[in-house]
Amino acid sequence: MGRREDPAWAMGTVGLTAARERGDIRRKFQNSLTVTRSMIDRLGLEKELHGHMGCVNCLEWNRNGSILASASDDLHVILWDPYKHKQLCNVSTGHTGNIFSVKFISDDLIATCAADGSVRARAVTGSASMLECSCHCGRVKRLAVTPEKPHMVWSAGEDGLVLQHDLRAPHHCNTDSKNVLVNLLNHMGRYAEAKCLALNPRRPYQMAVGANDFYVRLYDIRMIKLARLQIEEEEEEVSHWGVTPVWSSSSARSI
């Protein structure tokens, strides 16, 4: 007489739990209860959101998860409703190079950085721009923001600099701009590139910076004075942006 097959419900969580209570415990019980067939069947692609005309390079949720921002090579940022799977707003950023990072300053304000070397902040509706900074002389790879300082934006660029942007003050890109927070050229030489940065959500004054070497550098930004950009002349008579550092190396440590 053949073995009677278990009903479908017996292979689910309820059936397996009941079997354990009866003493019918198998070696595979724990794994079966952790990963059930019904759970696997529920996993999968929920929805494809269509709207961009180029590669999507970065994504960002707002603080409560009600809005998803996507930024693309098409130079646009799209805000999505992740529950209704619909487009809320399509923002033309004004960038002329691929966008690498997007951050929410608030639900109606976003900051972006791109391959064109610029950092921008603007309202998601209307044409008002809060920041247009081109102080970096290379691609700008990442941004950081913190709700503790909603008027501040930090940017990491492949020119080896981390810049601090105060949205409350008007900005002009010139040698009077005192916005250099970290100068990796001092530590790594002329080929230094800042690749990423992040602020500690519990200690928003603690910044981590990643670069094109083997280290993660931690900074207490309370202990750093902003430096001023200046133009230096090389022997080949080619101008480039540089900085005059005024902060102590003791304010950073590598791990």
Automatic annotation (TrEMBL):
Lineage top rank: taxon: Eukaryota
Keyword Repeat: yes
UniProt KW Repeat keyword: yes
GO process terms (BP): negative regulation of fatty acid biosynthetic process
WD repeats: 49-81
Membrane-spanning intervals of the chain: none
Pfam family, one: WD40
InterPro entries tied to this protein: DCAF8 (IPR045151), WD40/YVTN_repeat-like_dom_sf (IPR015943), WD40_repeat_dom_sf (IPR036322), WD40_rpt (IPR001680)
Keyword list, A-Z: Repeat, WD repeat
SMART domains found in the cross-reference section: WD40
Gene Ontology cellular-component annotations: Cul4-RING E3 ubiquitin ligase complex; cytoplasm
Xref: Gene3D superfamilies: YVTN repeat-like/Quinoprotein amine dehydrogenase (2.130.10.10)
Family annotation (PANTHER family): WD AND TETRATRICOPEPTIDE REPEATS PROTEIN 1, WD REPEAT DOMAIN-CONTAINING FAMILY
Name under which the protein is recorded: Jg4817 protein
Native organism: Pararge aegeria aegeria
